[in-house]
Amino acid sequence: MPILAGTAGSPSRPATTEIATAPASFVEILAGLLEPRAAVVRLDAGTGGFPRTAGAFDAEGQAVPQPLAYRQAAARWIVQCFPGLDPDHAHELDLATGRLTAVVAADTAAVAA
Q1: What's the CA angle centered on 98, arms 96 and 101, to 5 degrees?
Q2: Residue 111 phi, psi dihedral angles, 5° rounding
Q3: Strand order in the sheet with 99-103
Q4: With a threshold of 0.85, does the pTM exceed it?
Q5: For 10-34, b where at least 16 C-beta lie within 10 A, e where not — what string?
Q6: pLDDT tens digits, residue range 54-74?
Q7: Cα–Cα distance measured from residue 11 to residue 31, given in angstroms and rounded to the nearest whole number
């Protein structure tokens, strides 16, 4: 599964842990909000009480630009669909399979660098 967090260089694949699978209807609605090239939605880790945002990435792990309102809505919907997510960790939702995974914190820092 391609996983990047706004990097400008080569794709990286941090270790992930599968948490759950989203209902197909949820994934379909979320994918409909995003640009068609989007394959993965990455829910950023929370920072200092600011609302979480999400980013979209294509199948090769390249960022797919989205308006801020869409990124905020995607993050809010993922948090509502999966209550109890750890706000200190990034999470990724694969739009093809509906699998939600948690990104290992140490690898998240390496990806963001």
Answers
A1: 115
A2: -70, -40
A3: 16-21, 99-103, 91-94, 40-43, 54-57, 63-64
A4: no
A5: eebebebeebeebeeebbeebbebb
A6: 999 999 999 999 999 999 999
A7: 22
